[in-house]
Design a protein that fits this description.
InterPro entries: TPR-like_helical_dom_sf (IPR011990), UCP030959_TPR_rpt-cont (IPR014562). It comes from Undibacterium danionis. Keywords: Membrane, Transmembrane, Transmembrane helix. This is Tetratricopeptide repeat protein. The N and C termini lie far apart (59 Å). Among the domains are: 51 residues; 91 residues, Serine Threonine Protein Phosphatase 5, Tetratricopeptide repeat, CATH 1.25.40. It is built from 14 helices and no strands. Helix 10 packs parallel to helix 12. It is 82% helix and 0% strand. The chain is globular and about 55 Å long. The chain is mainly α. The longest helix has 21 residues.
Length: 248
Amino acid sequence: MPYLGVGLHVLVAIFFAVHAIRNRREMYWLMILFAFPLLGSIVYFFAIYLPDSRLQHGANKLTSAALKALDPGKELREAQQAFDLTPSAQNQMRLASAYLEAGDPQQAAVQYEACLRGPFATEREILFGAAKAGLQNQQGDAALELLLKIRQLHADFRKEQVGLLLAQAYALQGQNDAAREEFSKAAKDHGSVDAYAEYAIWALSVGDVATAQAQRQEIERMQKHWNNHHYAMHKPLLKRLEAAFSKA
């Protein structure tokens, strides 16, 4: 039995080592994982693996939704107060994000534009937020430029989300071949509900019902293993998907 325990520790360390290599993490993680298989794996799980996982992303989405329901304007008020008190670049970034989350992409774009003129013009969260604001403002060309810049400067940053936003930016510009390529790649590489649903919604918008049906079948296959938490997490997206099918 002790040998089995040691073997499991090593297998777990190998799993996390593969994750580190695939995600281009610092090589010192490999040394930590193999020098201290059990402790190193625990540290890697909480420091790297969990924050990158869909489980953590889903929990964050649910927590954020609950807080918004209780006090929808709290974050925007606090962000505005912080910026009024100390108009730093960090507080302006927070204010821009708060406007975007509050459903005001025009004001978000104004704040992000100011951030892009400052010393953090290449900071990935600023580029990402500005691209989202551009898309919501129907500014496909600006969003496309920002997203391609993220890919150039921060290749490993939010790969799935950047890919889906790129696909939507291409679609907004009428570049449907490029949009299809990005949607298809996101669905193939990540296999997430978001990727399948967004691909299906776009496919329906261009009259490709067969592709949309194929993506919905993938989601239905995944739903067989869902619990109430999963349904609650994906409810808004699934409503958008069904609405798109009803109009097709």
